[in-house]
Design a protein that fits this description.
This protein is an alpha/beta fold. It has one domain: Spore Coat Polysaccharide Biosynthesis Protein SpsA, Chain A (Alpha-Beta Complex). Helix content is 23%, strand content 20%. The protein contains 6 helices and 14 strands. The strands form 3 sheets. A 9-stranded mixed sheet has the order 3-2-1-4-9-7-10-8-14, with helices on both faces. The radius of gyration is 18 Å and the shape is globular.
Length: 281
């Protein structure tokens, strides 16, 4: 029997000191019940996390493969829950969740993330889509009050699936694993669901811990090259922007599944919509 309600799984490595102030705090501030949060750690760090994570800030401390990379962690987590489980995976360095109402600031705190997840899962069920996620940067100029179902990047910081047990859920790459997951679900379902009005604040290449314990410019470039070789019709290599040394990738190809879906009234903000008391400065 699948668990009731979504499981919010957080794979983490060497961030036992910052996790309580980042992802755990961000999820709780966004209305996610602590009992639904599962923190996934390596066996050699289980004691450290048990000592540093505040009691009541999470529901379960789970132990995964020793010293595994993010790809193996994510694959392992997916296989630990029965088919039918609504499983949401979050990075361990998310600092906040936001909602955009216009193309200008302020951004509004996303205080009901479970409501957003329920809408996403309902929409996935009606469209036959298996993967959903949030807008990958917290910049209202680029965000929109809609959700799209074509081929668009579903980034690693927060994404959800309903576990089925099929091989689409398992990625083969470590660097660019979120791009690979996006493409795999697109090929299986004909689209992915991205909620373009909601986002998060995170530092993709930031503090020590996580992938930064083993990621190098070489591994990033290798991941990009392998992804482009695996899916040449849907992925192209992109030269690094100024100030960066590593190659990036860009999704391409057919983009039409359904017209953009308008953001729901239950977009995760605190009603009424005109209330700006908690808005981001």
């Amino acid at each position: 029997m699948a668990p009731q309600g979504p499981i919010w799984a957080v794979p983490t490595r060497s961030r036992y000191q910052s996790l309580p102030q980042h992802t755990l705090a961000a999820l709780r501030a966004s209305g996610v019940p602590a009992k639904d949060i599962h923190v996934w750690v390596d066996d050699d760090e289980a004691d450290l996390y048990a000592r540093h994570l505040p009691v009541g800030s999470y529901g379960a401390l789970k132990v995964g493969p020793v010293g595994s990379n993010l790809r193996d962690k994510r694959n392992h987590i997916v296989r630990q829950y029965p088919p039918g489980t609504q499983l949401i995976q979050c990075d361990d360095d998310v600092q906040a969740y936001w909602v955009a109402r216009t193309r200008k600031r302020p951004l509004f705190p996303l205080v009901d993330l479970p409501a957003v997840a329920r809408w996403a899962y309902t929409t996935c069920a009606t469209t036959g889509i298996g993967l959903w996620g949030l807008y990958p940067i917290d910049n209202p100029f680029f965000m929109r009050r809609n959700a799209t179902t074509d081929l668009r990047y579903i980034a690693g910081p927060t994404w959800g699936i309903t576990v089925t047990g099929d091989t689409t859920e398992l990625v083969t790459l470590d660097d660019k694993e979120d791009f690979e997951r996006t493409v795999r679900y697109y090929l299986r379902d004909g689209g992915v669901l991205r909620l373009n009005w909601a986002s998060y604040r995170t530092n993709y290449y930031g503090a020590n811990g996580g992938m930064q314990t083993y990621r190098t410019p070489t591994t990033i470039d290798e991941g990009a090259a392998r992804l482009a070789a695996l899916y040449p019709d849907l992925v192209t290599l992109k030269r690094p922007p100024r100030g960066r040394q590593t190659w990036e990738v860009k999704l391409k190809g057919p983009f039409t599944m359904l017209p953009p879906l308008p953001a729901p009234d239950t977009d995760g903000t605190m009603p009424p919509k005109e209330d700006t008391a908690h808005a981001q400065a």
